[in-house]
Design goal:
This protein has a single domain, classed as 2-Layer Sandwich (Transcription Regulator spoIIAA). The chain is globular, with a radius of gyration of 13 Å. It has a five-stranded mixed β-sheet with strand order 1-2-3-4-5, with helices on both faces. The mean pLDDT is about 95. It starts with a strand and ends with a helix. Helix 1 packs parallel to helix 2. With about 110 residues, it is of the alpha/beta class. Strand 4, helix 3 and strand 5 form a beta-alpha-beta unit.
Length: about 110
């Protein structure tokens, strides 16, 4: 897994690539925690190049959602592939997360000041 993180205003966009499974999940989690510790009020996870994620990765996303929600922040998923959307639907997490296919729409959703 590779992460290209870009800070933007009071949040960050994380462009992820590769499978988020097993040994790559701690790096994924640490990247998110670093952004939250730096004061990010919102995150967009760009999943366009993520073909697969395991339950640990999903757990990290849920925990991130809850942390952001506690401080009135927002989390959005961007460009999720069908395999990821299927997992979200099966686990009923599709009703929890905002999923977008357009970066500008996602940015406006997480940060209306943009």
């Amino acid at each position: 897994m590779r992460v290209d993180a870009k800070s933007k205003d009071n949040g960050a966009v994380l462009h992820l690539s590769g499978k988020i499974i097993g040994d790559s999940v701690p790096q994924f989690k640490q990247t998110i925690e670093d952004r939250l510790d730096a004061g990010a009020e919102w995150l967009i996870l760009d999943l366009a190049e993520v073909p697969l994620m395991d339950s640990s990765a999903l757990g990290t996303i849920v925990a991130t959602f809850l942390k952001l929600q506690d401080k009135n922040g927002r989390l959005a998923l961007l460009n999720a592939q069908k395999s990821i959307l299927d997992v979200l639907a099966i686990t009923k997490l599709d009703s929890l997360f905002e999923v977008y296919n357009d970066m500008q729409v996602a940015l406006r959703a997480v940060n209306p000041e943009i």
